[in-house]
Design goal:
By secondary structure, the protein is mostly helical. The chain folds into two domains: about 1-40; about 40-118, no CATH class. Helices cover about 75% and strands about 0% of the residues. The protein has helices at about 1-40, 40-65, 70-80, 90-100, 105.
Length: about 120
């Protein structure tokens, strides 16, 4: 019983920490983007890019049950190259990314991703 309570409390603490990180991200990232636009500071640009890639990788895990070190575009691109049928979500991702860059998902396939499961 005490072990279950301890695990529950630990889960609540982790949930609270994750929530705090999310709040910092939702407030800090727009401010960082604005700061970069005004100043052109390259370290701020790198910070925003790293944060964006982390969100992309996390979304790959949550939305597509993908690998935590791969982006959504790379995951979908590998499925396209392998000839695997895409889900509705993956098809939407292809459509959305094609608006910005034609064949983005195939071009985004990351190095060493051939070692990851589809």
């Amino acid at each position: 019983m005490i072990k279950r309570i301890a695990i529950g409390l630990l889960a609540l603490v982790l949930w609270a920490v994750f929530g705090l990180i999310n709040v910092i991200g939702w407030v800090g990232i727009p401010l960082s983007i604005l700061y970069y636009v005004i100043t052109g500071d390259s370290s701020t640009r790198d910070y925003v890019a790293r944060y964006g890639k982390a969100i992309d990788q996390a979304a790959n895990v949550v939305l597509l049950d993908g690998h935590h070190k791969e982006t959504i575009s790379s995951h979908v691109g590998r499925k396209i190259v392998a000839g695997v049928e895409l889900s509705l979500t993956e098809g939407f991702i292809v459509w959305l990314t094609n608006l910005v860059e034609k064949d983005h998902c195939v071009k985004a396939i990351e190095q060493y991703s051939d070692q990851l499961p589809l």
